[in-house]
Structure formats: C-alpha cells, structure tokens
Amino acid sequence: MKLRFATNTTVMAALLFIAALIVCGLLGSWFQPFDPYETDYSAKLRPPGAAHWFGTDYLGRDLFSRVLAGIVHSVFPVFIILAVVSVISVVTGMISGYYGSRLDMLLMSATDMFTALPNLLLTIVIIGFLGVGMENVYLAISLSWWAKYVRLIRGLVHDVKKEPFVLAARVSGSYGLSTMMRHILPNIMPQVLTMIILDVSRIILTLSGMSFLGIGAQPPSPEWGAMLLDGKNYIQLAPWLGFFPGLMIFLTACAFQICGEKLRSRYKLK
Amino acid sequence: MLRYAISRFWMLLLSMLLFTLFVFALMHMAPGDPVRLLLNDFGAARDQSVVAAYEQQWGLDQSLPAQYLLWLTGLLQGKLGTSYLTGLSVTGEIASRLAPTLTLIASSYAVTLLISIPLGIGTGLREHSRLDRVTYALSVLGLSIPLYWLAIILMLLFGVLWPLLPIIGSGSVRHYVLPVLAISIVQSFYFIRMLRSFTVEYKQAPYIEAAQARGLKSIVLYPSYLFRSMLVPFITLVGSSFPAFFGAAIVMENIFSFPGIGKYMLDMINRRDFPVIQGCSLIVAAAIFLLNYLTDLCYYAVDPRIQLEKQRWEN
Q: Which one-letter DSSP state was computed for residue B172?
C-alpha cells in the first residue's frame, strides 16, 4: 500500500529539515543574526524585512534569532524525554512480555493505573500542584507516556517470543537476558522506533502547548509555545509574532510525522 | 448485562479512588505552604497565631491519613472545599462555568462527526482513489498542526483581517464558531483516519463478501452489514476521544477568553489555588471515568460477547 504522499522526495525534504534544525540548534548562536534576548526599543514591532527576517517583537528582539534559539527549548527536550521514556518502557515491557505470569500481572496493573488517566489531566494535575515550569512539564509528559509504550512493547515481545528462532536460541541454552538482548530486542526495534518517531510530533505539540497555556516555559524563554502566547496578545498589531513560532512548530511536527508515516508503511504498523 | 455493569462499576470506583489518592499525594508534595503564601499577600505570614488559625480552619494541622479521610468524606458529601482565593465553594464555581465548556465540547463533537463520517467511510470504501490520497496527505499535515496556532490563524483571518466574528468572550452563538471550527478541523483528521481504517478492515470480513456474492446492493449492504459491525470501534473512538476534546476545549477557552472550566483551571493553577485545582481535576477525572464506563456498557449492549478484560486503545 503506497500512497503518494510518503514519496521519497517528501521524506528527503523532511529529513533535510530535521538535520538543518539539529545543526541550527547545536550551533545556535552562530546562525543567529542578533542576540535573542537583547531588547532594542528603537526597533520594536518591526514587520518582517531585510534586517529582521521574521520581524521584531514588542521589546525589539529579533524574532528570527529567537526562533532559532527556541530549537534548544522546543525540540531537543523531546528527544531526551523520548529517550528516557523508551528505555524505561522497553525494559519494563520486555521483562513483562518475556517472563509473563505473576510479574507480568503486577507490572501490567501498574501501567493500567497510568493509562486510565488521560495524558492531559495528569499533566495539569502535576503542574497544578508542583508548580509551573518546564521541568514539571517534562516530568508530567514522561509519566503519562511510558505506560502506553509498555503495553505495546509487551505485545510485540509476546509475538516474537513464539518465533522459531527464539525457541531455537532457548533450546541451545540461551538464558533470559541474552535471549532478550540478542534475539528479541533487535526484532522489535523497528516497530519501537517507528512508534517513537510517530510520537515526536505529538510531544512537540504538547510541550509547546503547555508553554502556550502559560504553564510551561516562562518569558523571556524563546520556547516556541511561549513566543506564540506573546504573539497572541499582539495579533492585531503584529501578526507575525504569532505566525512564525507557530509555523516552526507546525513544520517540525510535520517533518517528523512524514518520517514516521514512511516508517509505519514500511513496517506495517497499525 | 447487570452483572457486567456492576463488576465494571467496581473498577470505575477503584480508578476514582486511586485518582483521589494520587491528587492528595501530589498536593502534599507541592512546594510552598498555601497558608503562608496566602497570608504573605496580606502581610500577615509572620503572625504565628493567624497561621495556626487558618491551618485549623482548613484542617491542615491534622495527620495526613486523617486529612485524606476528612477530605474524602467531604467529597462523598459533594463538598469540594472552598477556594483559598475567593472563599467561595468550589462546587458552585465549577457549576457556573460548566455550560460554556460542555456546549463547546458537544458542538465540536457534532461538527467533527459531520465532517469525518462521510469522508472517513467514503475514503475507506474507495481506497486509493484521488479523494483518499488527498485526505491522507492532508491528514499528515493535519496531525501536525498545532491547534493553538490554527486558532490564532483563524482569529487573524476572521477576526482581524476580515472582522466577521468576535474573537473574545462568549455569550452568543457567533462566539462559538471559531473555537468549534478549530477543534473540529484538528480532530476530524484523526477521526477520518480511524474511520477509514475501520472501514477498510471490516469490509474485508467474510460475511460482507458473502452478502456481496448474494448480489446485495450497496444501499442495503452498507447500512445493515458494514456499518452495524463498525459500531463497536466507532463507539470506542467517540468515547475515548473525550479527553482530547476536553484538552482542546481548555486551549480554546484560553485563547478566546471563554469563561469555562478550562480557563478557570489554568487561572487557578497560576494562582496556586489548590482546592480549585483539586476540585476541577476530580470532576474532570470523574467525567472521563464515567464516560469510559458508559462506553464499555455501550459495547456490551451492541456486542454481548465482549469481556471485561477488553483492552481499550489509548488515545
């Protein structure tokens, strides 16, 4: 089943965009024409032009530089969150799926408690009590995401476990950990990675969404969602303030979504 | 049916109880003492007797399990406490804000279903048609569009550049147009995709082929064979997407300054008004658990083979 959208050209474009994003994020200050935090009252609310590509905000800060600086705050944490979450859930899911029986039941009822709660509610409750800020948003997102993966990974392990090559390995004397690492993990990896990449865009949207709601990154952070919130208040005076950060969130999420869709059709995931 | 309903009800109560424990635990992990925070605003935090009086008034001087039980019995009597900030009852504050939020959610559901049922089933029946390819391409874009950005763009287009609709407040039907539109656009992409995959999956069932082989016309075949069997996943889709709609409503209320629960909740998070956060999250959780319960009952009514252990998808 090949649909025309996930062609190689769009996937290449998406990969290039992601690569550019990562380079700009790592070498941040190098590409930024202005200091993203420096205010300049003589040049406030300038529309996009030659000097300021994306215009300037109400404090005269260069929006283009701020958008570039925002990569570190809006995109990189997603990788860290997903890395932490996937390690935890791969370990839990594999143990649960491989050993089964009582341990499985125990672990599954623990994850059930988390999956019963909707992500958003968990996030709001955690932030509501522990306070506004990016660290608590990371905590909340990780807490609400891991259980979902454990279930999926457990299911995958369950299927792979019955394959002849796993049985063969066990018959030839391979024990728990080595079977899991050498025979099961490599076989579930493609699906797990696809799942993770498909979720990158959702986590980017959630992260920026929290900042947009004012409970994540706080000004003067150049987090895209926080910038969008600023932009909302200037919608009549300076619409570009809201347009560009939002566009970046959209493009980034889209790039990851395209790559994820490609992988999904390759590995026949639901 | 009754046995199923009752055994499923215990699970509902258990999840609710666990949630109250979770909320209570979080509340006590929260940094900062609410009494001192509040009294600081009045400049009275240094006066130990005032602090003690407030702690006694709110029951904060008792042990944790005692506080939990006190709070839980209060909840069972319908008391969600009083707001630290205004001193008004949380129940009343929430009740007065319920209508706009519910209207927003209900109308978004309606518009989403209106858009996605024909498109989702249509593209599923005609896989790989041009319409199918276009909706698929759009759905990749649609799944990555930030709802809040879409709302701002709609505001810009229809509120600022072409001032057709109000962009702030609530009160008239016109105030609902933009938020409902934004939510429905974003949710429709997900709904279309799911409905398409249900249609593709179910139209391959042997009984559909058999009915086709008997020469049944589409007009009879689809409603009485295909759509009927798709009812179970459809109910799950509608039921399990409530949190997503609620989340979208929170975002919309904040963008369009809608006086609903979502806006209230966020305002009070910023003011650290714990009883309000507690009350709101408990009511929302109860609504979500109850809806899950009703969804499960609906399944059972539609398809009695369904067991308790049936896994629901994660939204």
A: S
Mark which residues 179-198 of A lie under 8 Å from B by CB. Answer: none
Which residue of B lies nearest to A144 if distances are taken between CA atoms? B314
Residue listed under structure tokens 């935890």: A88
The answer, yes or no, to whether ipTM is higher than 0.85 is: no
Minimal Cβ distance to B152: which of A126, A246, A270: A246
Q: Looking at the domain assignment, is residue B129 inside a domain? A: yes
Judge contact between B242 and B235, C-beta under 8 A.
Answer: no
Asked if residues B198 and B231 have their Cβ atoms less than 8 Å apart, the reply is no
Q: B32-46 pLDDT, tens per residue?
A: 666 766 677 666 666
**One domain, residues B160 and B247:** yes
**Number of domains within chain B:** 2
Interface membership of A33 toward B (CB under 8 Å) = no
CB contact under 8 Å between A5 and B22, yes or no, is: no
Q: Are residues B60 and B106 in the same domain?
A: no
Instruction: Answer whether residue B223 is part of any domain.
Output: yes
Are residue B122 and residue B235 in the same domain, yes or no? yes
**How far is B217 from A176, CA to CA, in rounded Å?**
56
- State yes or no: pLDDT of B119 exceeds 90: yes
Query: Within 10 Å of residue A142's Cβ, how many Cβ atoms?
Result: 16
Subunit contact A253:B144, Cβ cutoff 8 A? yes
A242 touching chain B per CB within 8 A: yes
Could you report the per-residue pLDDT of B204-234, keeping only the tens digit for each?
A: 888 888 888 888 888 888 888 888 888 888 9
Do B257 and B181 lie in a common domain? yes
**Residue in A with minimal Cα distance to B276:** A128
pLDDT tens by residue, B165-177: 887 777 788 888 8
Is the Cβ pair A131, B19 closer than 8 Å? no
Q: How far apart are the first and last CA of chain B?
A: 26
* Helix axes of B242-255 and B173-202: crossing angle, nearest 10 degrees: 150
Domain boundary among B270, B289, B304: B270
Retrieve residue A147's tokens.
Answer: 């259980």
Identify the pLDDT of residue A7: 67
Is position B90 within any domain?
A: no
Of A5, A148, A258, the CB nearest to B314: A148
The verdict on B131 and B6 lying in the same domain is: no
A 101-120 near B (Cβ less than 8 A): 113, 115-120
Nearest CB partner across the interface for A128, out of B251, B277, B311: B277
Q: Are residues B150 and B234 in the same domain?
A: yes
Residues B72 and B115 in one domain: no
- CATH number of the domain residue B222 falls in: 1.10.3720.10
Spatial separation of the C-alpha atoms in residues A127 and A269, rounded to whole Å: 33
Q: Does A257 touch chain B (CB under 8 A)?
A: yes
The minimum CA-CA distance between B314 and chain A, rounded to whole Å, is 7
Structural domain boundaries, residue B58:
2-76
Residue B265 lies in a domain: yes
Q: Dmax over Cα atoms in chain B, in whole Å?
A: 87
From chain B, pick out residues whose CB is under 8 angstroms from the CB of A205.
Answer: 144, 146-147
